[in-house]
């Protein structure tokens, strides 16, 4: 298969990890895999399986390589791998894990405060005392006087695990918590998870940091979360430099300026200094300059703070007893800092730095032997995290908030950030640093061509773009327009921030020219009606980097912030709300594995792998939190599950766990549920609400017509079930899916007739949501009339509730905006997803371009 860079060729040596799918029966565990340049040169490769087909062949593989070439494409084939000259070594030595990349020796602690005790290059210490840092803000009110205390938290290591140990890549997973005993003698614990990545023959370390919130939002205000690195810098103060990544290039400052009132820019030395060069000053030749320079202040501390998506500032000071002075301001910093001297130095970066504001980069003690860099994922220079709910009561009837119960708790949620570090053993050029800065802010990933992803059939039903038919061309244009609209909205509406980046809003308010950010269940989308799957399908069929970035951000956010990772709601997520975790509905559809697994398979991201594993038993959580508790609290059932979205989400979780691990107990859970449905008169149309026994995974039939059928199919159930039917080669289950699609669009009379008077039109609202399943039924039966019905669901605006074509208009209000007045993310997500499916399944049955139904 052909591989290419998602964006552009990285500058210099790059350690990269990625995943690829394989056709069923093509690859087996005993096979070796080879990576070659387009000129036939083999590159050492580390490979491992990440998913399996039902016949035992490998479905997805993960790979790591260190690439140092200007090649834009590569070939991945079954064949003999090339042996490594440089290998990552990992060994446990007492209370440490030691990683050797060939250029760096990293001593990782198994306990204590410092994550990394020391890092060596050729037996010389280059960094030490690398640890996680945090700050908490304590609030009191005494006689109308507000008192706030900022207290540093100490990190404690609990467990260290070697997840991969070479030969190309090593991964070390560290778990622990932050601790402080406050003035009220109350312990505060904030768990963390940290993964460190090392590649053979490199001088870099990648960091994936996950922060978990387990506090009381009324009392636990987090002032800062970050990583501190101590390094070694040598040389005169004027030869110690700091480079911050600005909007485009680097902003440079020395610890001491080679500038004087009397001599000015003596012999151009000041020019050289600001360009980052090492400057030699001879006492004999430059004595006067040296005497004057030594009188200049020494700037020890520097800070770049990104306090919004549109502003950062750089400050510096001489010491802790003196004030900070402002150096400059900018818009969107690249999240990059380098400090160094005559011996080289270290550069650090935070991915999505301005997108996940408030963030900052801080340098302390530049003129000292061991200066420190602090990478703040949440900057202490701004207000502390305030994770309280927006109100003290729910607004169910007026604002669609689910339940009167107040379950708006952040306890159990998390947030993941990525950082990068690289050491230099001689002063780098500015060009080298700019290259590294830009590489770190772009997805460094090898990907396949869209037609290869499509050919493997490893990710459900979707098709490649096709503009050969006039209507297809118009539909493709509308699919592109939908992506472009949301891409623009993310920036126009500034949907950025540590707790927001990756999410989009639910419903637009054309009266205020604003999304309903403050209106109950109409604010943040979370994963309502699966925009994640839409964006991932849009990426797979196009290979576009901008769509990948949108989908990656949405996956990171929705899988972490919108879901619970421990506690009462573990394995579930929060429905849409003003506050991401604000809705009283905590459900499995929000955390469903199918929403996030494509990102895992494409990138091999271990944190996302954790999240997929985490939800495998989410059905057990509904044993004490019935999703249907408002409607069926007194029928004698322990709990309930709708066939969709609840049981469908469980199927997605179980299927993902089974294909990843080959653990057959999870396959049996799916088969048990399907087998039970097969025995019922209405089969998949039964229920849709069932009693549920979490311990035995049993769906208990309590009658039919008990709930709305649009809820069955709007949250990823068709994508999960169709993939399962294909993989199990279960013809009867496939017929049940066909039956469901056909039934949805029957007349009311036909529904009543076929269900013995039980099911009727009022139970089957929003038929556009069923277009994909209707298309599936039409394709399987080769039924042109049914196919035309499916297209009608998508192309008739009155039925779809989608205003086609998508057209933006400019409005002048508090500022000039572009808007689509009637847009909702629910409708857009489902229309795009179902259109992609219909184009693949029933593209041959498209209506004529002149049809009145084609309102494009």
Automatic annotation (TrEMBL):
Top-level taxon in the UniProt lineage: Bacteria
InterPro entries to which the protein is assigned, alphabetical: PcRGLX/YetA-like, PcRGLX/YetA_2nd, PcRGLX/YetA_3rd, PcRGLX_1st
Domain named PcRGLX/YetA-like C-terminal alpha/alpha toroid: residues: 444-846
Residue intervals of the PcRGLX/YetA-like central beta-sandwich domain: 88-434
Cleavable signal peptide: none
Pfam families: PcRGLX_1st (PF19501), PcRGLX_2nd (PF21345), PcRGLX_3rd (PF21346)
Domain PcRGLX/YetA-like N-terminal RIFT barrel as annotated: residue spans: 1-74
PANTHER family given in the database record: CONCANAVALIN A-LIKE LECTIN/GLUCANASE, TAT PATHWAY SIGNAL SEQUENCE DOMAIN PROTEIN
Full protein name: Tat pathway signal sequence domain protein
Native organism: Metabacillus niabensis
